Amino acid sequence: MAGPAATSVAARVAGSVAAQQFVQSAAPGRPACSLSDGCPRHTYFPAVLLNSRLFAFRLHDVSGVRRFPAGADQEWSQCRALGLRSAAAYLLVFDLTCADSFRYIRAIREQMLESRDMQRVPVIVVGNKRDRVAARDTRDCRDFSATVRKQWKWPYVECSAKFNYRVLQVFRELTMALDALRQEELAPATETSAAAARSAADGGLCGHCAIQ
């Protein structure tokens, strides 16, 4: 696609409507690609502008996948060209009205941590169907939030894809996390360039040296 390179993002579990709402809001009129390779996936190509930088996404909706592949061979056998193990970031979306869906993403999280280095891979956990949460379910919602934020140490957002409530915030959080990683990666190069510039300004001499 034209413009900046697309960042591959995998969205899982109850995320189809959220992905569609985001694409319609962020890039109305842009087509989604439904792949016919036997893989339960739709792919969208939205873009987000943050801090004067354009982030182009390749968003894979893979809500039909049963487990996170433990290796490349397993990924190929389960669903070729899925790209789950190489995604730059993940959205784990669950149904706030269904505790089983939260247990499912908990299992997916454990599989991810066991099979991939997640140190520099952003993950946003999203509780969907906020509009359908009854008063009796608010305690469960608090438990979900506490688990994700305090135990897992991952960002957590509740939204309603049906009413497009806080859907853009979900993807803003994701974009900010990716931008923070980019800034960290650029920092060493920036420091090296600044040091070289200072050295050149001093005639190529080390700041601790002097000509006798």
Automatic annotation (TrEMBL):
One annotated GO molecular function: GTPase activity
SUPFAM superfamilies assigned to the protein according to its UniProt record, in alphabetical order: P-loop containing nucleoside triphosphate hydrolases (SSF52540)
InterPro entries: P-loop_NTPase (IPR027417), Ras-like_GTPase_Reg (IPR052661), Small_GTPase (IPR001806)
Listed Pfam families: Ras (PF00071)
Gene3D superfamilies: P-loop containing nucleotide triphosphate hydrolases
Protein name: Ras-like protein family member 10B
